[in-house]
Records
---
Amino acid sequence: MTQPKSQTVRGTQDLISAEADLHRFIETSSYAHTQLYGYQEMRTPIFEYSEVFHRTLGDSSDAVTKETYTFLDRGGDSLTLRPEGTAPIVRALLSNGLTHELPLKYYYSGPMFRYERPQKGRLRQFHQIGVEFLGALEPWSDVETILCASELLNKWGLSEHITLELNTLGDKQSRALHLQKLVGYLEKYENDLSEDSKIRLKKNPLRILDSKSESDQKLLDHAPSLEECLTPASKDYFNKVTEGLTHLNIPFKLSPRLVRGFDYYSHTVFEFTTTLLGAQSAVLSGGRYNDLVEVMGGNSTPAIGWAAGVERLTLLLKQIQNTPQVKSTDIFVLPMSDDEISISQGLARKLRNQNISAELLTSGKVGKRIQKADKAEAKWIALMGDNENKTHTVTLKNLKSGEQVTLPQDQMINHIKEGST
């Protein structure tokens, strides 16, 4: 059935007033926080050539096989709305010739798109904030990246409601040995696997570790673990990461089955999870991806990053009742007739030039307009009638204290500032 044009498309939402303010708070505060760590902002297009994602995410990942919004433009090129932010950052690194400036740190924010079943905390158009630390090789950069995420969540009052889960995927040699052992084990139980996992067994068996099927997870209880396949170098790398986190008093939980949804990750992977959002437990996720730049045609370049869903963060902030206070209008200017509208606009302009938010209320009875200003939690109203116009005065009323005074217009700003301290 065709939906009326007046409705939003399924899986999208309008952000209005307080909801938009909450999104803006997350974006601006995360940008300011990441600047403390040396990150610079990068903004990439919301669509790329499809190959950017199909080559980097892996043909067997859900984001490619089921979820991408892919279309042909009028020139016949295949384009895809970005389902995540890392591949576009790496594409920009290469296409803008930035590889000679490594290491580089970038922060990004904006909408992402995945065609999946909409549910609480998961939409088809959603928003992410994220960082990428490109050219970072040593374990300290993993620790630094996790620290940045941990401190940001702490600033939002989430430390008591989240758990840092940590794992290592090891290097190529470790993953190759694990893959060999895992496939040998799973092939014995192929008929017992879920339909998705049967496909993954042929295309990308490691994705089975991330299966949501309970029967798959039971089979994995006795599967060969990646830990037993780690090379000495991989073990040493991960030990240095955990030692660094311990030194900084960042608590973590080892999660051997934690993997990432995309194929380009290696070594450290992590998630900050919560129990307050039901099935959507991941709040912020990240990891190391040393192979991605090379896959996209560049030289081998180590990198690590993380991303967080803004919608999920807003739900969590609301859950713990830690949403920012929305700033209300400071003063409403009430002209008593059309003759005072122009002078009222001039007064409002002077107020705004002093960073005092001001709005005009021009219609309705005075009492109703005062009630509207009070309901909007304004502190002041300025009454402009015929007498005030003739005498170049203004009548100010403090809606909090009830005090009312008539004074020259050129004293209005000082009186408001003094009354606001």
Note: The CA atoms of residues 193 and 218 lie 10 Å apart.
---
Amino acid sequence: MTEQTTILDTERQNLLVFVWRKRKIIIIVTAAAAVVSIIASFLMTPLFRSTAIVFPAATSTVSFSEQRNAKAAAMDFGEEEQAEQLVQILQSSRIRDKIVEEFDLFKHYDIDDTDPNKHYKLVKQYEQHVLFVRTRYGSIQIDVLDRNPQQAADMANKIVDLIDSVKNDMVAERTLPAFEINKRKKQQMETERETVLHKLDSLSELGVVSLEGRTNLFQAYVDSKSATEKAEIKKMIDVNLKHGSAFDGLEFIRNEKITKLEEFLESYEQAESDANTLFNHKFVVEKAVVADKKDKPKRMIIVLLSTIGAFLFMVFALLISDRLKELKKIA
């Protein structure tokens, strides 16, 4: 143990002696790196950060079903699944393209329209300046960095506003076709019901009555006293005997179709609501405000890291150089 400690002490002393012998070049390079990093940090464009925070909503629909209402109410905050979905929407080209168009980001980021890689460069710049992060509380933090503090705040708030319109457009792509199918089905069921009712009305005009009414006709025929009355009732009985079974079948179909239509109306109303209502899909916890202090660059950190990095690089570079010289002499 003592021998190892002695060896380490010797190596440390040798390293310190080596650094001291090479102090001039190390100091020159380190000082040059410090000066260059100071100049570079002041040449870097300052960026201002504006932050907005939103919570996803647990549900994006008005439910007409007790089971769906039990699952999530419109006032409930979303959980992990809804937060992940919201992050994906925020990162989508649907929102990015709208922001690019509204704020003319090609020009703002100094990207030439004739550049064949302009879209690639734009996406890179956008991803460096617009950040979406899930917080530990389940909310989504929207950060926008820009050299113009007002534009940073405007972009962040616009992204928040776009959440609803973009998601409503996405939902409409599915709910509108579904509503059209439900609408056609409802019209078909109503047409079939009206057809049955029309046939029943036609039979009623002929004098056809329900099963209970036909029973009363037979009793009236028995109780009738005059021949004329008997002849009239006999005529009605003959009509009912001829068309009674058809009337009973139509009555059964009518009742069945009315029941099915009433049951279908809940599904239809749900589809109509989903297709035609513009929902709010988020809770805004904090809107972005104009920053009064730059966020980047951190000049002190840049200068310290550059200076320390230059110092360590020169020490190792000189050590390797000396070692190579010794190997050449041995060879």
Note: Residues 32-42+296-318 form one domain.
